[in-house]
Amino acid sequence: MNAPVFPRLEIPHTLAAGPGPGNTADRVLAAYTSPGVADHMQPDVLRGMIECKKMLREIWGTQNVHTFGIAGTGWSGLDSMFSVVHPGDKIVMFVNGTFSGIDELSVRMKAATEEELRANPLDPQASSVVTIRVPHGQSVTGEIVEAALAEHQPKWAAMAHWETGSGRINEIKGFSDACEKHGVMGLVDAVSSLGVADLRIDDYPGVVGWASCPQKGVMALPLTYAPVSFSERYIAELRTIGARSFVHHPIMEARHWGIIDGEDVEKGTYHRTHSPYAVASFHEALRMVLEQGLLQRAERYRTAEKALRAALESMGCTVTSNMTSLIVLDLPGELKGREKEFVNACRAENFCIWPTLSEPTQVRVGILNLLAEEELSAIVKRFGAALNRFDVAADANAAVRELKRHL
Ligand SMILES: *Cc1c(COP(=O)(O)O)cnc(C)c1O
Asked: I need a surface site. Which of 11, 136, 336, 343 has the fewest CB within 10 A?
């Protein structure tokens, strides 16, 4: 039997009000489809990559030469960052939700010895990895990090800056200070915070490696580039010990972005076939972030989150998160146990909110690139209408007034 030729794939327009991917800007989508057909070594493509590298240094707030993008999504950048971790390396992982939990799995796969990997290939229990679990809904504090590093004296420590599973901000200064004090090299998953947080990574010298993603705070398309940044200390360590990866190797990947032997060069050299279309749209997204201004963006997110939080609370929800791009909440008491049903009903109408992906089940409402009053009002109205359909007597109009009072 021949495979059928399916009709052309049509994807509807939705309100992407989740933890990410964000509500992609038309400009970024248009930049993906408008470039001419070109190859990955065409001079304007290479120039675009150099410009992206320079814009990324500004967005990360860093002088790190090794600042560029890893093709793929957040996990691709994280895989690159963690490629420095070798079997038997002692590392402390701080876990307070879904994503730091997957970071921990990723690190166990790299730190496991051959025997440990063979004993449990998909979930190796690496004895050199120490996991500190912080309950869902709570943040990793500087004191927790300090105590763990003092006790275990590892080579590495890793944490998510903003844990998107539970919507919690973890204490980056405390993490960096403890790493510095104990001579530990810090690695940070900044997938959710970059482009939203008021963050300058050079303020945190205890952290040597940072990895983010395209489609959350920086508002680029998924599967384009995951921003990463590595300090000289990280690169020196990697030079000494190597990594068992060609494609995600931070030193080798950097060559295509015009970073060779620790120096900026005028144009990149081949590492793999980059996409001119990905480069063009990523470039446009970075331009947008810088046009809006990093401090101004952080402030707009703070204001919008506060307003949306007040509006949702006025309809009986209880918010447990403290991120400024995402609200994680418990529905009004009568809907306890029906969170997934509620989210699915919203998603069926292209109002794309999310449940939490690990226990306990909560509802997540995100505002990436949804900061205008009419966009926030639309979220409140649709959320209120869904509550009404689930027989909760919420007043969506009053909630919109509450929203506006805070904007
Ligand atoms: C979304 C997310 C990831 C995974 O990113 P992908 O782009 O889906 O690969 C990892 N860590 C955190 C904190 C995230 O929010």
From this structure: 11
